[in-house]
UniProtKB/TrEMBL annotation:
SMART domains: A1pp. Residues 28-199 form the Macro domain. The lineage of its organism: Bacteria, Bacillati, Actinomycetota, Actinomycetes, Pseudonocardiales. This is Appr-1-p processing domain protein. Transmembrane segments: none annotated.
Length: 199
């Protein structure tokens, strides 16, 4: 095996394997439209925690409180994760992670090892307006972080995380319609990885 071949095998993927998860049929149906024609995007009908993934997405609030919806599920499954998120937000963002930015922290478990916090709302339990663009901003932040981000030890995130499991963004407490969320996640994917699809 040549060094070049070995490098290609170990090289980071061009796009992540993004598994869009839904525990209800309306969101699963909406997610199907995102997966159609996009290499790397899949749909799972069931919990985010069913997926073998290196990272899961938390669509929490800007303060990092994880008390409702899927975030409460994460907090029960990964008892240290809320403290990690809040500490990271305080250290790196002065206590508030704006919608449109994302942060990766360890879950404290071996699988998934990482949680990507990408707020869809500023305050906990905020109901989002029907014309919100927050799912798009959150998804774009996750995908940009995967593409360009680094862990604290300097390793590129895309070299460590190959599969990301993503729940609905703002579709629970936030009240965003599944179709709206799906269209915005698709737009974020297309924007972040558009250079690949145009080749």
């Amino acid at each position: 095996m040549s060094a070049d071949t070995e490098g290609e095998i170990n090289a980071p993927a061009a796009v992540p394997r993004l598994v869009l998860c839904a525990v209800d049929e309306p969101l699963a149906t909406a997610w199907s439209g995102v997966a159609d024609g996009r290499d790397g995007v899949e749909v799972h009908r069931g919990s985010v925690l069913d997926i073998v993934a290196e990272a899961v997405v938390s669509p929490a609030n800007s303060s990092g409180w994880m008390r409702g919806g899927i975030d409460a599920v994460y907090a029960r499954a990964f008892p240290l994760v809320e403290a990690h998120v809040r500490s990271g937000i305080l250290a790196l963002h002065g206590g508030e992670l704006p919608v449109g930015e994302a942060l990766v922290v360890p879950t404290g478990e071996t699988e998934p090892e990482w949680l990507i916090s990408a707020p869809t709302m500023r305050r906990p339990a905020e109901h989002l307006p029907s014309d919100t663009v927050h799912p798009y901003l959150a998804a774009r932040a996750v995908l940009r972080l995967w593409r360009d981000g680094r862990l604290e030890d300097g390793r590129p995130l895309r070299g460590v995380v190959r599969t990301i499991a993503m729940p609905g963004l703002g579709t629970g407490v936030g009240g965003v319609a599944p179709g709206t969320c799906a269209r915005q996640v698709a737009a974020a994917w297309d924007e972040v990885f558009s250079a690949l699809s145009s080749k």
